[in-house]
Design goal:
It is built from 2 helices and 11 strands; from the N terminus they run E-H-E-H-E-E-E-E-E-E-E-E-E. With 190 residues, it is an alpha+beta fold.
Length: 190
């Protein structure tokens, strides 16, 4: 089942790739939606055009062959006690797969969210990503099924339909992540 596909991997990608991601984040413009109030989180988009991030994640996940959507984003929690309220993620179309994959059986959309932490949060539970049983759960309560604390180079993968939230970032901490979507090639993870 898809629920068994929750993975946390430390030292997930080579340090040189982390440094490249840091540079790409700093060079990318902040995306601003004037129709939305600021939530204290800056978003920047990027594309894994050469699939180096996909290759590194595939290696980190071992025997689980993955296909990572090339479009992803950086989230930088800059506001005081910035957090992400409980929600679920939406699947993305796999329309980026070109004709070379036409003979392979694959999903019509992504199934999992990936988060690669690009910074450490040192205060207890500061900026932690929590998986919940229900989107109405209080993420700060002990209702969380899984609590993943931000550590640089920690990869966290979980099914899109899993309710989750990001706890407030402590004033002394700085949370930065890269995030995107993927699916597993074995096709039985619907």
């Amino acid at each position: 089942s898809a629920e068994r596909r929750v993975r946390v991997v430390d030292d997930a990608v080579p340090e040189a790739l982390l440094a490249e991601l840091d540079a790409r984040r700093l060079a990318a413009p902040v995306c601003v939606d004037p129709a939305k109030p600021s939530d204290g989180i800056e978003r920047r988009h990027f594309v894994d055009a050469d699939a180096r991030l996909e290759a590194a994640m595939g290696a980190a996940l071992g025997a689980l062959p993955v296909c990572v959507a090339p479009r992803a984003k950086f989230l930088e929690y800059v506001g005081r006690r910035a957090e992400m309220r409980p929600h679920i993620d939406l699947a993305k179309s796999v329309a980026w797969l070109d004709g070379t994959w036409a003979g392979n059986k694959h999903r019509p959309s992504t199934s999992h969210t990936w988060i690669l932490y690009l910074s450490d949060c040192l205060a207890p539970d500061s900026g932690a990503t929590v998986l919940l049983d229900d989107v109405r759960d209080d993420p700060s309560s002990r209702a969380a099924r899984v609590v993943v604390v931000p550590r640089r180079n920690r990869l966290f993968v979980f099914p899109h339909r899993t309710p989750h939230a990001a706890l407030p970032v402590a004033d002394a901490d700085h949370k930065v992540i890269a995030r995107g979507e993927l699916f597993f090639w074995d096709f039985d993870d619907r």
